[in-house]
Specification:
It is built from 1 helix and 10 strands. The radius of gyration is 13 Å and the shape is globular. The protein has a single domain, classed as Rieske [2Fe-2S] iron-sulphur domain (Rieske Iron-sulfur Protein, 3-layer Sandwich), CATH 2.102.10. With 109 residues, the chain is mainly beta.
Length: 109
């Protein structure tokens, strides 16, 4: 049984069909640009800003469960936001993703 929108909470940002496996897009949550990535059918979301120099992560490369910054090649875990490669040392803010009835909702962790 799938969650309903009222059960999952969060802010509706997209339809599941909008982000195909292996693709990334950006959405807005409360005035903040957020990277939404489909990793093998599972959606992940991080603030679309590298913690090193605020590069747009959405312009980087999706590599499995990580995203690589386009400016200085730091990488971040899409599940947790953890910085995996320097020069970034601070995490990117991760969001909780809920899918209900084909709609994607995000909330802060």
């Amino acid at each position: 049984m799938s969650e309903t929108a009222s059960e999952c909470g969060g802010i509706r940002v997209a339809r599941l069909a909008d982000v195909q496996p292996g693709e990334m897009t950006t959405v807005e949550v409360e005035g903040v640009k957020v990277l939404l990535a489909n990793v093998g059918g599972t959606l992940r979301a991080l603030r679309d800003s590298c913690s090193h120099e605020e590069a747009p992560l959405s312009e980087g490369e999706l590599e499995g469960e990580t995203v690589v910054c386009p400016w200085h090649y730091s990488s971040f875990c899409l599940r947790t936001g953890e910085a995996l490669e320097p020069p970034a040392v601070d995490p990117a803010e991760a969001y909780v993703v809920h899918v209900a009835d084909g709609e994607v909702f995000l909330s802060r962790q």
